[in-house]
Write a structure and sequence with these properties.
The protein is an alpha+beta fold. It is built from four helices and seven strands. The structure holds zinc ion.
């Protein structure tokens, strides 16, 4: 089921996600809905906060993105990214490594707003999968960027927080407009 995507200005995007204690049937259904929503919106990643729930769950799928390659290592060995997709990360813990690199980012909660964000080029990840099993990997390229962007969401951090002053200035009026629209819509629902 495709869920409505929460836009910037909704306070849920600033909430830190609660840890998942066990993967219940409700969580399994929720994860399937997150995938449906991400696909429908043609996104690379989606965090639980973006569909209105402050939980430590995110889904990622970088398949089909050819202009920005991804890298993957399993147990220190290069591995095939495509066959590792799609990804569910529950309660993820990450360690970003490598030099910081600038790259373009967008976010389903910020339609039509794009800007460069500096992030470490690689990331070590440990999380639970959709069956509640612990797994680890190292990512580079777009996948490293997507993981860091989504794990930020799980902690109430947004990509605009990571933009440098100049980039933030460029998108400021669009961001302010989106926030005002969202707040007006939320107020009219009450
Ligand atoms: Zn996002």
């Amino acid at each position: 089921m495709v869920l409505p995507v929460v836009k910037y200005g909704d306070p849920v995007l600033r909430r830190k996600g609660a840890k998942i204690e066990s993967v219940t049937p409700e969580i399994t259904t929720f994860i399937a809905d997150m995938f449906d929503t991400m696909k429908a919106a043609r996104g690379v990643g989606l965090a639980a906060q973006q569909v209105g729930h402050a939980l430590q769950i995110t889904v990622i799928d970088v398949r089909g993105i050819t202009d920005r390659p991804s890298k993957l290592w399993l147990d220190g060995t290069p591995a095939d990214v495509e066959s590792f997709m799609p990804l569910v990360l529950i309660n993820p813990v990450i360690t970003p490594t490598g030099p910081r690199v600038a790259g373009p980012e967008g976010c389903l909660s910020f339609p039509e707003i794009f800007g460069d964000v500096d992030r470490p080029s690689e990331v070590e990840v440990t999380a639970l999968n959709e069956r509640g099993e612990t797994f680890s990997f190292r990512a580079g390229g777009l996948l490293a960027r997507a993981v860091q962007h989504e794990v930020d969401h799980l902690n109430g951090i947004l990509f605009i927080d990571r933009m440098n002053t100049e980039t933030r200035q460029e998108v400021r009026s669009e961001i302010d407009e989106l926030q005002a629209e969202t707040k007006a819509r939320l107020a009219s629902k009450r």
